Amino acid sequence: MAVVKKLHPKWFDNFATSTSIPFDLKIHSGFVAEDKGKIIGFLTFTSDEGKARISWMGVKPKFHGKSTGTSLLKALEKELKNIGLKELRVETLSELTEYEPYEKTRLFYKKMGFKVESTKKIKSKDKGEMLYLATLVKNL
Ligand SMILES: CC(C)(COP(=O)(O)OP(=O)(O)OC[C@H]1O[C@@H](n2cnc3c(N)ncnc32)[C@H](O)[C@@H]1OP(=O)(O)O)[C@@H](O)C(=O)NCCC(=O)NCCS
After folding, report:
1. Angle 94-4-7 (CA atoms, 0-180°, nearest 5)?
2. Count of domains observed in the chain
3. Average pLDDT per consecutive 10 residues, the chain (140 residues; last block may be shorter)
4. Most buried pick, 110, 111, 115, 135, via CB within 10 A?
5. What is the chain's Cα-based Rg?
6. 65 CA: nearest ligand 1 atom
């Protein structure tokens, strides 16, 4: 949650920070990245009817661009391949909703080999505005 707080409100809104993430983190599995004994990044995942997806992922802003996200994702991919899963999904803000911070997030997932599978329009649980959410998929 210390990492989440550093990503609020730019990437994680009030509802995600106060409600969605704290509950999901108690239930979902995950990995953390450490620097000098302190957690600087995390990735959680879950599965529904045999389909694995990243639920939450974040790296403290001052550590962005230093391969922490890549390491977290590689750890997850290794585990999923061992289980025998062939695909990994993640939902993120679509390019149809213009918001600069998530351009970087999309570039990250693109570099990691994810492709857009579908896009849906949703109502934000935070402020109620309409957003486009993309489901990205990567073959493992
Ligand atoms: C997305 C996030 C987890 C990536 O973690 P990271 O440790 O910064 O990523 P990495 O350093 O491993 O980057 C890997 C590649 O992604 C791309 N990338 C990452 N950040 C980028 C940026 N700001 N601009 C352009 N490309 C970027 C690059 O291609 C990079 O490879 P390179 O360094 O060889 O060029 C991190 O930026 C983050 O916490 N963002 C805010 C929260 C968020 O968006 N979470 C996901 C919600 S779905």
Report:
1. 55
2. 1
3. 98 98 98 98 97 98 98 98 97 97 98 98 94 98
4. 135
5. 15
6. 11
Q: Token pair 């949703």 is at which residue?
A: 122
d(CA 51, CA 62): 32
Beta bridge partners of 38: 35
Residue 6, burial from CB neighbour count under 10 angstroms (0-12, 13-18, 19+): middle
- Indicate which CATH number applies to the domain containing 108: 3.40.630.30
Q: Which domain holds residue 125?
A: 2-139
First to last CA, the chain: 29
What is the 18 CA–ligand 1 centroid distance (Å)?
24
Is 0.70 topped by the overall pTM? yes
Amino acid 43: pLDDT = 98
Atom of ligand 1 nearest to the CA of 59: 39
